[in-house]
Structures are given as C-alpha cells and as structure tokens.
Amino acid sequence: MIRRLVLIALICILIPCAAMAEGAKFGIVLPLSGPYAAMAQDMKNGAMLATDQVNQAGGVLGGQAELIVKDSQLKADIALRRVKEMVEEEHLTVIGGNLSGAISLVINEYACKNNLLYMSYCYNSLPVGKEFCGKGFTSAVIPYQNPDALATYAFKNLGKTWMSLSADYRGFHDMMASWMYNSDQLGGEFKGNIYHPLGTRDFSTYIPRILAESPDILVLNNYGADQIAAIKQFSQLGLTKKMKIVISKTHLHIAKECGKAYDANIYGGATYYWNMKAAGEENKKFVEAFTAKFGAPPSGDAEAAYVGTKAVWQAIAKNGAADNVDALIDALTSMTVQTPKGSEQFRACDHARQQSILVLRGRGDQSKDWDVFEVVQEVPWEETLQSCENNKNNLPYGNVPIPTK
Question: Do domains 2-142+279-344 and 145-276+356-399 have the same CATH topology?
Fold first, then answer.
C-alpha cells in the first residue's frame, strides 16, 4: 500500500495531477427517429463537430471530451428514460439536446430536481415563468421570439388579415400566443386557426376553409415532415399564389426538400442561415468545417447544437471540473462564446441566448444548390427577447388566450 502511494506521488511530481484527469462527458437526447429525424441528425452533427474541434485542440480537463447521444424518438417518457440512464450509468452532471419544447420542459424539471446542468438545443420556454429553476439553458431562442420578428415584418409589408395552421403541440401554442399578441398590437385582423395533429401528411382537407377566409397571410406553426407536406401541397394546389405564407420556424432542409415549391411568396423565421452576409470569419470557418465533414452546410438547428455544445465544453474548461453544477452555471453566464454569428452571451437572469432572429424568404426555382433563402431582415435580440422581469412573470404572452380546437 505504501509503495503504491509513493508511486502515485512520484507520478504527480512528474506529471501534474490535474493533467491525469480523464476528460469530461456530456450526454444529449435527440429525436433521431420520428418526424423530426432529419433535423435531429443535423443537431447531432453540430454537437459532434463542436466536440471534435475541442479534442483536436487538446481536449478538456486533460483528456477527451466525450459526447454521448441517445434517441428520444420524440417521446417524453423515452427521452426522460434515456437521460436517467446516462445520469445513473455514466454519472453525468451535464445533459442536453432535444428538438421539442414540451420534452425540454420535462427534462428541465428532472434537471432541477437532481441538480444537473441542462443545455437545451431547441426552441423552448425554459427561461420563462415557473419553468425557470436556474439549471436550464437554451442555445436556440424562446418560441415567442420568431413570431415577434415575423409579425412585425409581415403586418408592415405583407398585409393585415391572417389565419393560422398549427400543430397541436406546446411549442406551437407558445408561438400562437406571440402571433395573437403582436396582431393586436400591430393592427392585424385574425380570421381563425386550424389545429392539426403532429404527423399530418394530408393538408388538402384544410384548404377549402383557408380559401373561404382568404387571408392576406397564412401562418404555419409546424415543423419537420409536417411542414414539408404542407408547403408541397399548398404549392401544388395554388395556395401560395393567392396569399403569403409565413412560417414561424423554418429549416434549411425543409426548403431544400420542397424545391421550387418554397417560392418567394413563402417567408420563414430562423436564428441562423449559413449564407447570411452579415456573418464574419467565424461563420466561414464553421460552414467550411461542417460541410467538409457532413457534405452539406449547417442549418439553424445544427448551429444551435454546435453553440450549445461548444459553450458546455468551454464552461467545463473554465471551471476546471464538470461535477460542480453551480460553478458551471456561473461560468456559462459570465463568459462570451464565439459563435458563427459573432460574440454572444447567455443572459444571467434567465439563461437565454442573446441572439438575433432572421426573416427569410424562399427562392424557389432561383435556388442554387443549398442557397435556398434570401435574408430579408436580421432583427437584433434586443427587439425580440423580453426583459428579465417580463420573462420571470411570463409577460406579455402568458396572459394571451389562444384559439381552442
């Protein structure tokens, strides 16, 4: 026993004990199967790239940064089970991922009760009201932010009358509240909402009612395969020639899959576009590295996962350990992260990422390869992110009644 202790002491003299650390682990859950699978894969790729770059630069805590990825199947119970497995089997204190605001809230509740750091990659309401417990961060935005930017643009430039087609899901309810509030503030005239189940592929049955109302603007509050199906069918049946379509959250792969159907009459909200002209050298390096590794440029989901993962590794390195959650939170809220969009921070009061919102426009048959959008406007975060006090009290959107079924 004495001989072993002497040997350890000698090793620590020759090699600093801190350097003998075995790195750190970060576990994420993503819906790699189900209607959001393509977007989840893009998130996984972003997280993998961030981790690879950390390891290429020497790792973290004297060892390798290890990313553990599990499939949630877009089901809350499975997502929670996978998180519990990682925490119990891998002894993780830092978890993340998700592409569902509702599932993010479930994981956030678990993180709060078990003193875990949770870095969510998707649009969610973790920073708002009772959902905020101080353990969760979002590397995307709060769902109300996209509609806030889009509504301001749409009611000024596209028309006043509008109706919406919404997936019956928590995140899209939050987006709907933002649209309703902004409509009231900006003189919009609401003509009704249609809810559709998650996983809908036939949208033709909704068209007669939409045509009967004849709004200037049709708002889509859905995502993934649902959004692709809706855009293709609306284009085929001539709806995009009769009104402007504004999508609360859109995606690079959605526009690519829709092809010429995603035309100049379709607008969408996003946090990132790989070919945004205002971005600088950091974005150029990110796009080149991502494209070289995965064969296509990064989407907004990929960028959110990349930034969230990069921030986690940076905080662990700054803190010198991965097991002190409170110290990691202090690190995350006191540091600046170099993102593809520039230098950004997570706000200390609610852990929201301070980033701009993009208003995008489809290019249809003018698209060239992956250059499928025109950036119409970039809206600073100060114009869409509510104050700390408002978020704490879930204002103003928490009191807005949304349409019932």
Answer: yes
Percent of the chain with pLDDT over 70: 95
Confidence band (pLDDT; 50, 70, 90) for 12? very low
Which pTM does this prediction carry? 0.94
Q: What's 297's DSSP letter?
A: -
Residues 45 and 291 sit within 8 Å (Cβ to Cβ)? no
What residues pair up with 353 in beta bridges, in sequence order? Answer: 346
Q: Say which CATH architecture domain 145-276+356-399 belongs to.
A: 3-Layer(aba) Sandwich (3.40)
**Topology of domain 2-142+279-344, CATH:** Rossmann fold (3.40.50)
Give the C-alpha distances (Å, rounded to integers) separating 93 from 28, 77, 114, 223, 230.
Answer: 12, 20, 9, 31, 40
Give CB contacts under 8 A, 24+ apart, made by 253-258.
Answer: 253/38, 253/39, 253/42, 253/299, 254/224, 254/227, 254/228, 255/362, 255/367, 255/372, 255/373, 256/367, 256/370, 256/372, 257/228, 258/228, 258/231, 258/232, 258/362
The strand pairing partners of 352, in sequence order, are 138
Q: Would you list the domain boundaries of the chain? A: 2-142+279-344, 145-276+356-399
